[in-house]
Amino acid sequence: MRRVALATGLAALLALTGCSDDTDTLRPTQTPADGSTAAATSTGERVQVVTSIDVYADLARTIGGDAVEVRSLLASDSGADPHSYEATARDQLAVRNADLVIANGGHYDEFLTRALSAAGGERAVITVVPGEDEGHEDEGHEDEGHEDEGHEDEGHDEAHGHGRDGNEHVWYDLQLMGTLAGRIAEELAQLHPADREGFAARATEFENGIAELRQRQETMFSAHDGTPVAVTEPLPLFLLTDCGLVDKTPPAFSQAIEEGTDVPVRVLQDTLNLFSERAVELLVYNEQTTGPQTERIRKAAEDAGIPVVGMSETLPTGQDFLSWMRANLDAIEQALA
């Protein structure tokens, strides 16, 4: 298995390792004599891409175009929790037949990690957030110009495999998604060389879209730097932080909601006080993780006249990644106006 890991916010190729499994009889591995994967698929075949979540499936389709066939193991309407999901036999077959697998990492989609371990054979694997045991060999850092001095300034936390501040919802990090687009294009170019220029052009177009969104974030940062906000869980924090907004939610509250445990009474009251005391100017609410305690928080915000913006963990039906993030920024701007 050849693994490609992205450090949060940086184009870092952390590891390339090879392994083979003679028991992989469903799809024979096609590896050139030089050990590369450039000819893993013939020019007449579509590259088989498997992703853990629909967000990465959208990026793969956007960049791959007609040259790829993409399957997300967790569809947007599945309602399944990635933390507890178990890969089905059909999922396992898809992974075994994949030419490229895109995983979130950071312990978010361990069902895919287990499926990869069981699959055998060879395939390209992009892991967006490397875990503790994923891709920390020194040689991988040197080969790709991985510089240590740039990490402290950016607040990255590779060693713990959770990205910035332990947040595994890295698709809300727009800069990282631009970096990921480039990595997908590079991997697809190796697997399907005939469409190399198309992959590069579509990745550039996507990156230009990201640049426009990042420019909006910079404008919002100038206008709202230091504005206090609250969240029901860490889902949108990359997006909010890069807009200059500061999360004032008690960490024990958002952690409990994310882990599906009860919020301690004192912590719940401290969170409710943020609204009754008007200590925050916005609540960002995860629409896909709701319950009695998050509903109390939402009602407290509404009763205090504090705007509530809903965001989702999966790509909304009928949207692509760029239109989704554009809508999220629109909602934040309107709420703070």
Automatic annotation (TrEMBL):
Residues 153-166 have a biased composition (Basic and acidic residues). Residues 131-152 have a biased composition (Acidic residues). The keyword Transport applies. The keyword Metal-binding applies. It is found in: Cell envelope. PROSITE patterns: PROKAR_LIPOPROTEIN. Residues 130-166 are annotated as: Disordered. Residues 1-20 form the signal peptide. Its main location: other. Keywords: Metal-binding, Signal, Transport. This is Zinc ABC transporter substrate-binding protein. It comes from Sporichthya brevicatena.
